[in-house]
Write a structure and sequence with these properties.
Length: about 230
């Protein structure tokens, strides 16, 4: 039986594309107060501040390009004969721009908008401001990025859990394992019988069966080549 692979990515997979991580030295949560910019309470208190924070994230995302790690994972999706599930905590669209067809964005997407009043969702590029109105209900003042904030329920968990539970191999790439529920995936997968692999610049505190340490742009293509052989065979 062909293996089912479940990959979880975090900010580290996009670090070499120039997008800052959250918890590394100089990371976003050293420069911004999480409670002010990434919570529903922060948005209610100061929508302009929160929208400005995500406008900067969206502009950085638009200016960035996928790196060799994103491309290697897209190749894995195309060529792996078994099930490949890619769940990302990242709100950027670099997996998609590397031609990854199916990405489960459990923390939402910066290139989409959500109306806090009527829950309408639509594609968004460029800056977002408190003056923008929802094309669904016409109301202004509730337009926000379609991202999951602290205190909100991550997206797609009902699709993600069964895929995690039937995985033969669980791989965490470039995530610190600090934010639940994603941080608990490795233990869930292990309990369900999967082998576990961490790919990261440095080992995290979580328990894995195996580790590959180094920058994702090198370690991910190396791992994928071991599974599939060299590209273009
Ligand atoms: P973190 O910033 O917490 O962790 C980034 C991880 O990437 C660390 O373990 C680094 O060692 C690793 N890393 C950095 N550069 C790397 C590279 N070039 N190659 C490989 N690994 C590298 O980011 P996440 O774990 O993704 O949530 O953070 C999880 C969630 O916390 C985010 O989705 C976000 C944040 O608060 C919300 O905003 C809801």
């Amino acid at each position: 039986m062909t293996e089912r692979i479940f990959v979880l990515t975090g900010a580290g997979v996009s670090a070499e594309s120039g997008l800052g991580t959250f918890r590394d030295a100089g990371g976003l949560w050293e420069r911004y107060a999480l409670a002010e910019v990434a919570t529903p309470e922060g948005y209610r208190r100061d929508p302009g501040l929160v929208l400005g924070f995500y406008n900067a994230r969206r502009a950085a995302c638009a200016a960035a390009s996928p790196n060799a790690a994103h491309r290697a994972l897209a190749r894995l999706e195309r060529e792996w004969p078994g099930e490949l599930t890619l769940v990302t905590q990242n709100i950027d669209d670099l997996h998609e721009r590397a031609d990854h067809a199916r990405v489960w964005h459990m923390h939402g997407r910066i290139m989409a908008a959500l109306c806090a009043a009527c829950a309408h969702r639509w594609a968004w590029s460029g800056d977002m401001g408190p003056e923008h109105a929802c094309p669904g209900c016409g109301r202004a003042g509730g337009v926000r990025p379609d991202v999951v904030w602290f205190g909100e329920m991550p997206y797609l968990l009902d699709e993600i859990w069964p895929r995690l539970e039937r995985a033969d191999l669980f791989v965490a790439i470039g995530t610190s394992g600090e934010v639940y529920p994603a941080a608990g995936f490795v233990a869930e997968a292990e309990a369900a019988g999967a082998r576990t692999l961490e790919i990261n610049l440095e080992p995290t505190a979580a328990v894995f069966d195996a580790r590959r340490i180094g920058p994702a742009s090198r370690t991910v293509p190396e791992w994928v080549e071991e599974l599939l052989g060299p590209p273009g065979r």
